[in-house]
Design goal:
With 482 residues, this protein is an alpha/beta fold. The chain has four domains: 148 residues, Response regulator (Rossmann fold, 3-Layer(aba) Sandwich); 164 residues, P-loop containing nucleotide triphosphate hydrolases (Rossmann fold, 3-Layer(aba) Sandwich), CATH 3.40.50.300; 76 residues, Helicase, Ruva Protein, domain 3; 48 residues, Homeodomain-like (Arc Repressor Mutant, subunit A, Orthogonal Bundle). Helix content is 44%, strand content 14%. The strands form seven sheets. A five-stranded parallel β-sheet has the order 3-2-4-5-6, with helices on both faces.
């Protein structure tokens, strides 16, 4: 396995395998070549051992379960293709990268059929090999995560579909458990789509009121007169269409729980009447003279900053303090990144069962797109995304082609943004940086990178020959660097 060395000034600066450390075994019957690769990869933060035959490599694999195998093809006794087949059969999570001097299609097909993750031809650059290893490690991690999510039962709190186990969500659920037995009015706050009603249902189901009604009303969905009638009820003749007496939601809830969703949208004239009900614990139907006791626990929810609303005189301060006895924050999905794939898998199974489709889960590549998206619409947006994906899916796994276009465009847009948001660079520097990112994404294939960028190979080489922004030029170019 021959190695092509590059001077530092020609090295793609965006290659950083130290962000994804792993255990690597390099297999080559030429020990000097294998040890040279070992030295170069160790400088990139990898733990590397050497084997000079397929039989020695199998022994190392059995003893240490490495993450990646880099193997030559032409070796005495057992070829690299045979080694790849045996390793993949016994250790399916192990990433195998095959390197050969015979760069023809038949050899590449044989390597892929044997289960190789990547196929590189000699002379192989350490930079290209490092990129391939880094991508293989990431692929391995995603595959393990997705497999774990497929096999584990979703962790559901309160029996109401609150799925996840991230620290942010656990804090919310622990607070729900602590206040469930109380009769205190609770205010659930969080962005739209975070699942505030699910938290309210969990609060109800964990309380002594669990066998009583749970009733929810959206305070933003109706004008003040209709909302008053819905909440308090009315007597016959109270207004034109009041042909019979009607019991309001406060009384329909009985000894259960009444959720006033989007309370921040409630008109000011209704806020006064609601405040009186909460203070007196009695309700008078519209047009009636009799007051009835209110026994239901009141829970309010909002996606607004009610303190700011109070300061702007759009929400009554006295009502705010009346409902804000216990505040339960619901974190946005961007703060629950550990729950994204768990939720996505939950929604895939739910949608597949409802639509009678044999969709079992999410591919590793699609999972990466889900993890990199910011989800401004939170859990609701994720659920809609997975319902769409299941509807379009033609296989047993959701793939990238099944995801909404905005997820794909969002990831492409992020490729041109510096990893240091505060760093301002010239347009030329940004161009060069993007070229290196595209090259990394295609494992160093300059022809493919040129096609994606819409430029010729010479332009790719020219940008790579320029020192990357912030890099240091070595004082002695005569010393080869891996």
């Amino acid at each position: 396995m021959s190695v092509r060395w590059h001077s530092v000034r020609y090295v793609c600066a965006t290659v950083q395998t130290t962000n994804a450390p792993g255990n690597v075994i390099v297999v080559d019957d030429e020990r000097d070549t294998a040890e040279l690769l070992q030295l170069g990869l160790k400088k990139r933060g990898l733990d590397v051992r050497v084997a000079t035959s397929a039989f020695e490599a199998l022994g190392l694999v059995a003893a240490s379960s490495p993450d990646v195998i880099v193997t030559d093809v032409q070796m005495p006794g057992k070829s690299g293709i045979d080694l790849c087949t045996e390793i993949r059969a016994a250790h399916p999570d192990c990433i195998v990268i095959v390197v050969t001097g015979i760069g023809n299609l038949d050899m590449a097909i044989a390597a892929m059929r044997a289960g190789a993750y990547d196929f590189l031809t000699k002379p192989v650059s350490l930079d290209v090999l490092s990129i391939a290893i880094a991508r293989g490690l990431e692929h391995r991690r995603l595959r393990q995560d997705v497999r774990r999510l497929r096999s584990q039962a979703s962790e559901v709190f309160g029996g109401d579909g609150i799925v996840g186990s991230s620290p942010a969500l656990r804090g919310t659920v622990e607070l729900v458990h602590r206040v469930a037995d109380s009769d205190a009015t609770a205010l659930i706050v969080g962005e739209s789509g975070t699942g505030k009603e699910l938290i309210a249902r969990a609060l109800h189901n964990l309380s002594p009121r669990r066998n009583e009604p749970f009733i929810a009303i959206n305070c933003a969905a109706m004008p003040a007169p209709l909302l008053e009638s819905e909440l308090f009820g009315h007597v016959r003749g109270a207004f034109t269409d009041a042909k019979t007496n009607r019991q309001g939601l406060f009384l329909q809830a009985g000894k259960g729980t009444l959720l006033l969703d989007e309370i921040g949208e409630m008109p000011l004239e209704m806020q006064v009447k609601l405040l009186r009900v909460l203070q007196e614990r009695t309700v008078r139907p519209v047009g009636g003279d009799t007051e009835y006791p209110v026994q239901a626990r009141v829970v309010a929810a909002t996606n607004r900053d009610l303190e700011a609303e109070v300061a702007s005189r759009r929400f009554r301060e006295d009502l705010f303090y009346r409902i804000n006895v216990v505040t339960i924050p619901v974190p946005p999905l961007r703060e629950r990144t550990g729950d994204i794939l768990v939720l996505a898998q939950h929604f895939v199974r739910k949608s597949a069962a409802r639509n009678d489709k044999q969709v079992m889960g999410i591919s590793e590549h699609a999972a990466k797109y889900l993890l990199e998206y910011d989800w401004p619409g939170n859990v609701r947006e994720l659920e809609n995304c997975m319902e769409r994906a299941v509807a379009l899916c033609e296989h047993d796994l959701v793939t990238v082609s099944d995801l909404p276009q905005k997820l794909l465009e969002d990831r492409r847009a992020k490729l041109v943004i510096s990893s240091e948001p505060s760093e301002l660079v010239t347009l030329a520097e940004m161009e060069n940086r993007y070229v290196r990112q595209v090259l990394q994404a295609v494992a160093g294939n300059k022809t493919r990178a040129a096609q994606i960028l819409g430029i010729d190979r010479r332009s790719v080489y020219r940008r790579l020959e320029s020192p990357p922004p912030g890099s240091m030029t070595p004082t002695d170019d005569s010393q080869p660097q891996p």
